[in-house]
Write a structure and sequence with these properties.
By secondary structure, the chain is an alpha+beta fold. It is built from 18 helices and 19 strands. The strands form 3 sheets. A 9-stranded mixed beta sheet has the order 1-6-5-4-7-3-2-8-9, covered by helices on one side. The chain has a 5-stranded mixed beta sheet with strand order 10-11-14-12-13, sandwiched between helices. Bound molecules: adenosine-5'-diphosphate and magnesium ion (MG). The site of magnesium ion (MG) has 5 residues, from helix 2.
């Protein structure tokens, strides 16, 4: 293949510009990104080689090497993973296949710290090399192809890239960074070792660097022929809990999630019984930008006996726990397991149930903690992920009760964080229902005329303003034996809370107002099912209610907005 020139996809150009200009203060993350790509490439090879061990050629030990050439001012990240064919290099390094890139650009805040975090979440990793390099050359050969079928991809990271065929005897990929002027610190071995230790310690492959020795004559460090391993290279979850520090858990979390903050909570267990597996699960502090994207990747990685099988193994957790990150390492699943098999597998079912219970326990531990600080953490969690967790009330029948206890609402008594148990604890003598109102916003809920009577009587009403709340209500009929009653629906019977005097007055009024009601009914015709005298209003002359069992007005509005 002759040398050919290609143009980057428009989005890539934009992205490259942003990456190089906005991430400068966090530049060392490029090494984490490139090592993580190298590690992914080795995982992919290991997986493909399950069916075809010839792919290992004569190099079965997967590894990453970081090489420095001071004279040429290059830094190379070399792996012997799956490699790329010429077409793959063109496709994978010249375009962004993932949807959401536009969204990413829109989300860049200008705050470099935050933006660097986003970069990781989006997996625009490769381009981060251009923060420190003014040219990147990639030399690669896909496992299984002939030595002559290697590819050299090269670009200054502006408009175009060049591709040509090369002969590359060794399988895998070299990412060669031609460092920008002034970036010589990335030629220093101890600096690089420090970054690797910080960001890539838990990569389960060895990351090797050449040793250096002080040369007194030249009065500088000289690179030796010997290599040593810089990282720990043992998959964290396979180690015993007692040997792992909190900091190591946090670092591991940051590495798999690309989050810059430590997790809110984590749990690490070897599970035996119906299915044998290790679980290491994290609840993040902050919601990712794409929590509501339908085609967003899930956060669990599946391994089978330490062999990486897949990212985004959505069968392992219900979707309402999609914010959880972590690793499952199964001892029972077959190594050639596919997504289809996962959906059917009884082992997976057991893992899914086990993980769900664990995550709920972690959350309960925070929510019910005696320590106020922990309960505050739960409140913070709820702010970020509550709307997602709520979906579980309708989706997970087995854990509905547990989920109901974890719900938090605003109410007429407190602006946030009211649990159903708090509500029940504050119920008035003689009150037997849990009253809720659904509305578009907190202000609309609070000012609704439907609440007048409740306010007058000091009865607490939960204010439900999330889009999913209507749906949640349709699955949560009661709590602790008390029915949930939407105050915008049907006739409100306050039962023993109603005073007899008022009731009688209303009945009399209904009697004397009959002719008026009849006239209103005729005037409104089809548009109203009924016109009634009510005790629920205090100051307002009239309000709309829907029939018990009908869609609430709020839901009707939502559906109308959605074009239904
Ligand atoms: P991501 O890792 O999230 O896919 P990157 O921008 O980091 O995004 O990498 C883009 C793509 O380039 C990868 O998905 C992969 O197909 C390819 N790639 C990058 N580095 C390597 C490598 N060392 N070996 C093989 N393929 C690679
Ligand atoms: Mg990557």
């Amino acid at each position: 293949m002759d040398k050919t020139t290609h143009s980057f996809q428009a989005e890539v150009k934009q992205l490259l510009h942003l990456v190089t200009h906005s991430l400068y203060s966090n530049k060392e993350i490029f090494l984490r990104e490139l090592i993580s790509n190298a590690s992914d490439a080795c995982d992919k090879l290991r997986f493909e080689a399950l069916d075809n061990s010839a792919l290992y050629e004569d190099a079965p030990n997967l590894e990453v090497r970081v090489l420095v050439d001071k004279a040429a001012r290059t830094l190379t990240i070399r792996d012997n993973g799956i490699g790329m064919s010429a077409q793959e290099a063109i496709d994978h390094l010249g375009t962004i296949a993932k949807s959401g890139t536009k969204e990413f650009m829109g989300r860049l805040s200008g705050d470099q710290q935050k933006d660097a975090q986003l970069i990781g979440q989006f997996g625009v990793g490769f381009y981060s090399g251009y923060i420190v390099a003014d040219r990147i050359t990639v030399e690669s050969r896909r496992a299984g192809l002939k030595a002559e079928e290697g590819v050299r991809w090269s670009s200054e990271g502006t408009g175009d890239f060049e591709v040509e065929a090369i002969t590359k005897p060794t399988r895998g990929t070299d990412i060669i960074l031609h460092l920008r002027e002034g970036e010589d610190e990335f030629l220093t071995a101890w600096k690089l070792r420090g970054i690797i230790n910080k960001y890539s310690d838990h990569i389960s492959l060895p990351i090797l660097m050449q040793k250096e020795e002080w040369d007194a004559e030249k009065s500088e460090y000289v690179t030796q022929d010997a290599w040593d391993t810089v990282n720990q290279a043992a998959a964290l979850w396979t180690r015993s809990k007692s040997d792992i520090t909190e900091e190591q858990y946090h670092d591991f979390y940051k590495q798999i999630s690309h989050d810059s903050e430590p997790p809110l909570a984590y749990t690490h267990n070897r599970v035996e019984g119906r299915s044998e597996y290790t679980q290491l699960l994290f609840v993040p502090k902050n919601a990712p930008y794409d929590l509501w994207n339908r085609d967003r990747k899930g956060g669990l990685k599946l391994y089978v006996k330490r062999v990486f099988i897949m990212d985004d193994a959505e069968a392992l957790l219900p979707s309402y726990l999609r914010f959880v990150k972590g690793v499952i390492d199964s001892a029972d699943l077959p190594l050639n397991v596919s997504r289809e098999i996962l959906q059917e597998s009884r082992d997976v079912k057991a893992i899914r149930e086990g993980c769900t219970k664990r995550v709920l326990s972690m959350l309960e531990e925070l929510a019910n903690n005696e320590d106020q600080a922990k309960r505050d953490q739960y409140a913070a969690f709820w702010k970020e992920f509550g709307a997602v967790l709520k979906e579980g009330v309708g989706e997970d029948f087995t854990n509905k009760e547990r989920l109901a206890k974890l719900l938090r609402f605003a109410s007429t008594h407190a602006d946030e964080n009211v649990s159903l148990a708090d509500y029940v604890g504050r119920m008035k003598e003689g009150q037997d229902a849990i009253y809720v109102i659904t509305a578009d916003s907190l202000a609309a809920a609070k000012n609704s005329p439907q609440l007048e009577l409740f306010k007058k009587k000091g009865i607490e009403v939960l204010l439900l303003t999330d889009r999913v709340d209507e749906w949640v209500l349709s699955h949560l009929y009661d709590f602790d034996g008390r029915p949930m009653q939407n105050v915008t629906k049907g006739a409100i019977d306050l039962g023993k809370l109603q005073d007899e005097e008022e009731k009688k007055k209303a009945e009399e009024a209904a009697e004397s107002l009959k002719p008026l009601l009849e006239r209103l009914k005729t005037a409104l015709g089809e548009r109203a099912k009924d016109v009634r005298v009510t005790t629920r209003l205090v100051d307002s002359p009239a309000c709309l209610v829907t029939e018990e069992g009908d869609m609430s007005a709020h839901l009707a509005r939502l559906l109308k907005q959605a074009g239904q």
